[in-house]
Each structure stands twice: as structure tokens, then as C-alpha cells.
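Re: the 215-residue chain
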Amino acid sequence: MQAANRSGVVTPRLSSFQFVQREGTLKRLERMSDLLIMDILKFLHSYNKEKFIQNLDKYIKFGTDDQIQDQWVQCGSDGSGWATSDVSNKHKELFPENSRNTGAKIFNIIEKTKKNLLLQDSVTFAADSLFCEWAYVVDFDKNVFEIYEGFNNEFLDSNHRFSFLIKKDENEHILDTLIGDGKSEYFPVKIVKTFNLDSLPTEEEFLKEFKEDEE
């Protein structure tokens, strides 16, 4: 089941770990401490990296649309795409890894899990930077933590992580982003900051860097 109002989605691709934040993010920097990014940053300062990567490789896979839908059916959904509060609460209890309320706590779930988890892959939401205001990537191959921002009107060439979300015809002419239904003025989210995982900023340093960029 595609949950349109999920707070975020986690996407393990190869050894990268992506977190796409949904519509509704407050972009004012003075409110940034309230955002999911701070929860992610706190986790990256304290997690067991080796264990997390092991669990990511061992237990985490993407579910098919049918498998994700079946999770909702198990909780009492009629398969229509709508769910009562009772169904939603049961889904949150049985499948917290795919709950819209989990947010950045998905990191903790993965680090602590001892069972297989099927996650919903909604990485294509990053194509719609009008609504996807922020996205975060932890790349263990490059050992970096990347921050992406929405409202991007600039074309992304093939060197950008999310350029694969731009549809092209056989002549490489741009058609649209993958989730669009016509020509869009917005391209996928664009990278704005990169931090080495071994030298992450504190919350105060992080906020200061963004404020300095705005000045």
C-alpha cells in the first residue's frame, strides 16, 4: 500500500541508505532542529556501524507491491488503499518498519532487528522535488552522509545520484520525472551538503553551516 502521507521512506540500495522526507517540511532554518534530520544525525553519532551494515545486508529487502499490500490486509484493510484508525494502529504495531509514524526511527529498527524486514521502496518520490523538500543519503561505500534539497528547477546530469529518476526518450530528450504525467518544471532533489561519516558535525555545527550558506 502506497502511503501518501508517510513522514519518510527508507531505501537501502546496494550499500547506500536513503531517507526521503515527505511533503510538509518547514524549511526555515530556525526550525531545522525540529526536523527528521536531527534524529538521523543523532543516530549516526551513536550507532554501531558494523552491526547496522550487517543487518542491512542480512535482513532488509524490498517488498513487492503485493507483499506490502498483504501487510495491510493482514491488519484488516479491504485493499482499497484506505484504512481505518484501528487498521492503521495495528499496522503500526505489526509492521513499524513501514509505518508513516516511524520516521527516522527506521534506523533504530534496522540496527536492532533479528528478523527479515520487507520495506516499501518509494525512492521515486525524490523525483518530485516540488513536494519532496529534503532527502538524506547514508552511503557506506563512499562513507558519506549527503543532504538533498527540493524545489530544484535545474537539470541533473548523469553524475547526480537521482538523475536516473528523469525519464528520457530513445534520443535522450527529457520527457519528465518518473512519477509525473507530463512535462514538469521540477527535477529530482539536488545535493546541497556532504559530510564524512567519520567526522560528522554536531547539531550546533550543522545548523551553523546551513545558516552560513543562507547569509
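Residues 30 and 207 are 8 Å apart (CA to CA).
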